[in-house]
Amino acid sequence: MHNHKALRIALIGYGRMGKLIEQIALERGHTIALIVDEHSSPEVFSSEALRSCDVAIEFTRPEAAEHNCQHLIQAGVAVVSGTTGWAEGVSRLSNMVQQGQGGSFFWASNFSLGVNLFFEAARRLSSLMHSYSTYTPKIQEVHHIHKLDAPSGTAITLAERVLSEQSALVGWHLQSDEAQSAPDSLPIHAIREGEVAGIHSISYRSAEDVISLRHEAFSRRGFALGAVLAAEYAAQHSGVHTMQDLIAKL
Ligand code: NAD
Question: Which of 11, 16, 17 to mutate to test the pocket of ligand 1 (most atoms within 8 A of CB)?
Answer without folding.
Answer: 17
